[in-house]
Amino acid sequence: MVALPGVDPSWSAYLDVPSTAGVDPAGTINRWHYLDNLPSLTGDLRGTLLCVHGNPTWSYLWRSLLGEGARHGWRVVAVDQLEMGFSERTGRKRRLTDRIRDLEDFVSSLGLSGPFVTVGHDWGGVVSLGFADRNRADLAAVVLTNTAIHQNPDSPIPAPLRLALSGAVHRLGTSTTTAFLDTTLALARPRLAADIRAAYRAPYRTANRRRGIEQFVADIPVGPEHPSHAELIRIAEGIRSLDVPVLMLWGPGDPIFSDTYLDDLAERLPEADVHRFEGAGHLVAEDRNIAEPIFDWLQHRTANDDGRQDRLSAASFTPLWHQIRELGNGSTADSLAVADMGQDGVVARSLSWSELDTRVSSLAAALNRIGVAAGSRVSLMVPPGIDLTILIYACLRLGAVIVVADAGLGARGLSRAVRGTVPDFLIGIERALVAGRLFGWPGVRVSVGSLSDLRARFLGVSHRLEDLVAENSAFAGGDPHPDSDAAILFTSGSTGPAKGVVYSHRQLSAMRDTLAATLDLVPGSALVAGFAPFALLGPALGAASVTPDMDVTAPRTLTARALSDAAAAIDATTVFASPAALRNVLATASGITADGEQALRRIRVLLSAGAPIPVELLEQLQPLVPEASLHTPYGMTEALPVTDIQLEQIREAGAGTVTGAGNGVCVGRAVPGAEISISALDAAGLAAGEPSDSPGVTGEILVRAPHVKERYYRLWITERASSRTAGWHRTGDVGHLDANGRLWVEGRLAHVITSADGVLTPVGSEQAIEQLEEIRQAAVVGVGPAGTQAVVAVVVPASDADGAALAPDSLAERVRESVRPGGVQLAAVLKLSTLPTDIRHNAKIDRAAVAVWAGSVLEGRGKKKP
Amino acid sequence: MLGGAVASLLVQTGNAVRTFQRRPSGVPGAVDVAGELSDRAAVQRAVKGIDAVVHLAAKVSFTGDAADFHRVNVTGTAELLETARRAGVQGFVHVSSPSVAHVGRSLVGVAAEPADPEHARGSYARTKAQAELLALEADDGRMPVAVIRPHIVWGPGDTQLVERVLTRARSGRLPLLAGGTALVDTTYVDNAATAIAAALERLEHVHGVPLVVTNGEPRPIGELLARMCAAGGVPEPRKSVPGWLGRTAGSAVETLWRRSRADSEPPMTRFLAEQLSTAHWFDQRRTRALLDWKPGVSLDDGFARLAQHYGGA
Q: How many CB atoms are closer than 10 A to CB A787?
C-alpha cells in the first residue's frame, strides 16, 4: 500500500486466508489486506476491535481508531472485505452468509482471539453483527455506526439506493464509472480534504477494481426473494438476545441510514447507548471524532462504573396523576379542575375533577386501542389547555413517552427535534400536521381540532382526538413502572442544537413535589397557567388550573385583562407566567376591570419562569398583585427548578456583603430536595475542581435532586460529560455560592474567558456595565486563542444604537472604568444595535455568536451584525 | 528613540555603555563612537573590548529603495555579527520586528512565528527577516544571540510613529481603515528598553528564540490613533475607509508616488494600510516567562507621558 494520510505504514498488512465460504471452491485461498495497529501497541492488551467497513469504503475508514486504540491498549484490526479495498477480487458473487464466513476465516487465520469488539459501518454493520451473533463466547461489545439490520417490507428502501439498484444505473453507477464512490465520499460533512478523498479512491482506480462495489450493492436484500434475505432476518432477530454492551454512533444527516433505521436497531437492542451527532452524516467516522468516545465508552462499560448508581430517589412516590384520581373520587369530585378562558372574559370550557379523571382514563383506553402502548413515543403538538392536559395525563397513564418540543426552537430546530426522536404517534393541531407533512415527520397522525375530511386525508390523519375522547371505557391497565421513561423535553437550543431530555415518572413526580414545596402549593390552590411547562403540573399539584386567553406560543400576547379575568374565574391564588408575558401585563394594566383588580389582590404567589426577569420588572409588578410573593426560579430543562428567590430576597442580596456576594446574578438558595455544588475552574477555564460548597469559589454549577433528568436522549457522549461526577448533573453554567448558601450565576461555562491575566466570567462585568445609564445591554466576551484572550465588551447604547462600530472614546472609557473594580481590563468596547438571543425566550444572549462577530470586527473585517 | 532609551537604561543600571551611530547619541554617561555599519573599521573600533552588543541599527521606513534596506539591514547585521564574534563579544541582542513574520494576514494572539523573508511585506520587513535569520544562525555557546521583536514602539519624541501620525492627522491624511477596529498591540518605549535589558541579563534563557515584546494591552487601532492625536493636541481622524479599498488604493498611490519621484513619503502605502486595518496582537506569556519581565508603563501612563511631552490632553 502506498503512504496515505493518517495511516502509519506499519499498520498495513496482507494475509492469505484459506476460505470456507460456500461460494468458494474447496482449497481456495484469498488474499486479504487489512490495517492492524499491533506494531504501535505497548503494554497490556485489553482486547481487539474488529472493524468492518461498508460499501464503497475500505479499512481506511477506521484509521482514527487505530491510533487512538493503541494509546488505550486496544488492538484494532480493520479488514478490507474481499472484492473491496486492497483485498483480492475473487470474481465470485459473495452473499451475506459468505461475507460472515469470510470474516471468521480471516480471524482464525490471523490467530485473533477474544475478547472482541465488533465495529461496523453501512453494510459492514450487518456483516459485523452477523459475526457477533455467531461468536458470542468471545464477544465483549458491539459498536455500530450508520447501518441498518432490517428492511421494513411495508416501506420502500431509500430512494438513492433504489436508483443505484435499477439495472443499467446499477452497473454504470457502481463499476463502470466512479459515481457511487464519488457520491458516497461527497456525503462527508464537512467536505473531505482532497488527499483523504484520493486515499478512499486509491483501491478503486479501474472498473475491474470497482466490480466489488457493484456486487456489494447487488447483495442488498430488497425483498424476501433475495438470496441474502433469510440470513439478514436471522441476524436481525438473533441480535435481540445479545447481552453485551452496545454503542451506536450515528450521523443523522444520512440519506440512506436515517433515524428510522437507528430506531429499529435501538428497539432490537434496548440497552444500547446511542449518540446522534447532530449535523453529521453517513460518513460519521469522517465527520466527527468517534475514536475518543468509543474508547471512553469501552473503558466505562467494560469497567462497569455506572455513574448513575448514586442517584437520589424520592422518599415516597405517587404517580403524577395521583391527585386527579384522589380529587376525582372524593368530596371534591364536582369542583372545578381545569378551565379554558374564552375571548369574552368568561370560562369557555371546563371539567370537574371527576370529569377530568374519567376523560384521562377513557382517552388512555382509546389511545391504547389505536396502538399507543407503554414505551410508545408520542409527540404532542397541542397548545396548552384542556385538550393538552388530558392528552398528557392519558399518555403518561399508559406508560407512553410524551415528546414535548415547542415552536420556540424555530422551524428547523423543531423539525430536527421531532425527527430525531422518531415519534410513533404525532398528535397535533392542524398547523403541526401541516409542518409534519412538509418536513416528513414520522408517526401515526392524530388530529386535534376540527378538520375537513379532505384536509385530514391530505395531512395523512389516521385518527381524530374528538372521536377518541368520545369513546367511553376506562383504561384497565396498571400504572407504568416509576423508573420507566415518561417524557422527553427539549432544551432551548441556545447553546447548540436542542437536546432531548428524558424524565422518568419518578422524576416528573419529584418535579411536582419540589414545586409544591417551593411555592407552598397545596391541593385546593387555584392556578392561572400562563407558562406552559409548570402550568401542566397544575392538576398534578391538585390545583384548579385555568388557561388564560392568549396565544401561548407568543407569551407577550397575555394582557392584564386576560390574566385578571382568568384569575377572577377560579378565585386564583397563584399565577405562573413568563417575563415576556408579565411585561405585556404591565403595559396593558389599564385594561383591568374592578373585579379583575379584586381577583389580583387575592393572588398569594406569582412565579415568573422561563427566562431571567429584571428586578425592575418585579418591582413594577408588585403593586398589581400587592399580596403576592414574587418568585423567580433558576433552573434548566434538565433540572426544574434548582433554586428559587423572591423579590425581597433579591433586594437583600443586592445590599449584602457576606463572603461571595456579588459578581453575578443572585438566584437564591437550593429548592427543597436539591443540593448545589461547585466544581472550580482551572487556569484553562475548565471545571476540573472537586465539587465543593465553599463560598466565593467560581466554577461549574452542579445539582443533585430527585427531579433531575434521567438522561439526554440519544446523546450518550453529552450524557457522559454531564454526569461524569457521579450522582450530579453538570449544568454547563458557571457561578459561585456565598456564605449564606445563595447561588450567584456568572454565565455559561462555554462563555468563560481565559485571558493572560486569568480566567473570568461574563455576567459580573456585564452587570457593572449595564449600571451605566447610557447602556441598555452588554455582553462581555473573549477574543483570540484560549489562555491569552482579549476581553471585549459589546454594548447596546440606550440611544444612538445605529450600526456596529467602535464605541466612541468617551463611552469606551466609562465602560472600561465600570469593570476595572472587578479587575477586568477591556481590550476593546464595540457597540451594536441589538445582541443576538435565543429564539425561545428571546432572553439568553448568544455570547458565542457575539464573540465570533467581535473577533471578526477586531481583525479588521467589517461585518455588520453577529 | 529606542536605542537612546536602552543606552540610558543600561547606564542607569551601572553598565559602561558605548554607542555606535552616525550622530551623537545625547545619552549622558555613554561613550559615543561615531560611524556607519558599512564602515568596517568603525564597527571594529566600536565592538573592541565590549562584553555584549545590542543591535538596534536599521533602516526603518514604509517606502524606499530595496537596495538601501538590504545594505543596512542585512549586510550591516551580518558584518556586525561577524565583527563582534571576532572581537570576542560574549552576548548579542538583536532587535528585530514582528513584521518579519507578518505576511498580511491578521495576527490574533499569536506567539513569535518564524521570520519569513519571502512573504514578509515590504522591503523593511523582508530585510529585517533576513537579518533575524542571520542572527539566529549566529547563536552559539560562545556568543549567545537573543532576538527581541518589540511591536510598534512609541513614546515622546518618537519620529517613526507618533510624529508621523500627528503630521498626517494635522494635514487630514490619516484615514481610519475599516472603522479603526483592528486590534493592535503596541509597546511603550520604556517597556521595550527594559525588555531588551532583560534579554541581556537572561541571555542563557532566551537565546536562539525570537520573542515578541509588547505592552500586552491590545487596543483597536482607531482608539490608539485617537489617543495619540489627543495627546499630541491634534484633531483625531474621522473618515473611515473600508480595509480593502485602503489596501488597493495604498498600492496605487505608492506606485504613482514612486513614478513621480516625489521626495517625501506617500500618504498611504499598502504596508501601512495593512498595519492599520488588520489585527496584530500577540501572546506574551512565553516572552514574559523567559525574560522574567513585565511592562512597567501601562498604556494609560504612556499616553499621559505623551500628553505631557506634546502638551495635549
A: 16
| β-bridge mates for residue A584, sequence order | none
- Of the candidates A665, A712, A730, A717, which has an alpha carbon nearest to the alpha carbon of residue A491? A712
Q: Which one-letter DSSP state was computed for residue A48?
A: E
Query: At residue B268, does pLDDT exceed 60?
Result: no
pLDDT of residue A660: 87
A783/B108 CB distance under 8 A: yes
Which grid coordinates belong to A576? 405562573
* CB B38, CB B194: distance < 8 Å: no
Helix (H, G, I), strand (E, B) or coil at A53: coil
How crowded is residue B132: how many other Cβ atoms within 10 Å of its Cβ? 27
> CB of A401 within 8 A of CB of A487?
yes
Neighbours of A96 (CB within 10 A): 23
Of A665, A625, A664, A626, the C-alpha closest to A645 is A665
How far is Cα B115 from Cα A43, in angstroms, rounded to an integer? 42
- Number of folded domains that form chain B: 1
CATH number of the domain bearing residue B135: 3.40.50.720
Find the helix or strand (DSSP H, E) in which A735 lies: strand A729-737
Q: Which grid coordinates are listed for A221?
A: 436484500
User: In chain B, which residues have their Cβ closer than 8 Å to the Cβ of A789?
Assistant: 109
Residue A314 has pLDDT above 50, yes or no: no
Residues B107-156 pLDDT 10s: 899 999 999 999 888 888 899 999 999 999 999 999 999 999 999 999 99
Least Cα separation, residue A827 to chain B (angstroms): 5
Distance CA A622, CA A624 (A): 5
pLDDT tens digits along A742-769: 999 999 999 999 999 899 999 999 999 9
Question: In A58-122, which residue ranges form alpha helices assigned H by DSSP?
Answer: 63-72, 96-110
Residue A751 phi/psi, 5-degree rounding, is: -105, 10
Strands B145-150 and A828-831: unpaired
A 760-799 near B (Cβ less than 8 A) = 783-785, 787-790
Q: Tell me the pLDDT tens digit for each residue of A377-426.
A: 999 999 889 999 999 999 999 999 999 887 777 888 889 999 999 999 99
Q: Is B263 exposed, middle or buried (0-12, 13-18, 19+ CB in 10 A)?
A: exposed
Nearest to A80 by CA among A141, A15, A163: A15
Q: Is B226 helix (H, G, I), strand (E, B) or coil?
A: helix
Tell me which chain A residue has its CA closest to the CA of residue B243.
A860
Contact A450, A339 (CB under 8 A): no
Average pLDDT score over residue span A693-716: 96
Residues of B in contact with A828 (CB under 8 A): 181, 183, 218-220, 223
d(CA A350, CA A336): 7
From B62, B124, B154, B282, active-site residue: B124
Query: 3-class DSSP state for residue A485?
Result: strand
Q: Is B124 a catalytic residue?
A: yes
- Is the pLDDT higher at A171 or at A456? A456
Give residue A46's region: left, alpha or beta (phi > 0; psi -120 to 50).
Answer: alpha
* pLDDT per residue as tens digits for the range A23-64: 999 999 999 999 999 999 988 899 999 999 999 999 999 999
Q: What is the model's pLDDT at position A768?
A: 93
Subunit contact B179:A787, Cβ cutoff 8 A: no
Arithmetic mean of pLDDT, B260-272: 58
Can you give the pTM of this predicted structure?
Answer: 0.88
A560-570 vs A579-587: helix axis angle to the nearest 10?
A: 100
Extract the C-alpha cell encoding A312: 437520589
What are the helix and strand counts (H, E) for chain B? Answer: 13, 14
- Count Cβ–Cβ pairs < 8 Å, chain A vs chain B: 80
B215–A contact, CB cutoff 8 A:
no
Domain containing residue B119? 2-309
The ipTM (two decimal places) reads 0.88
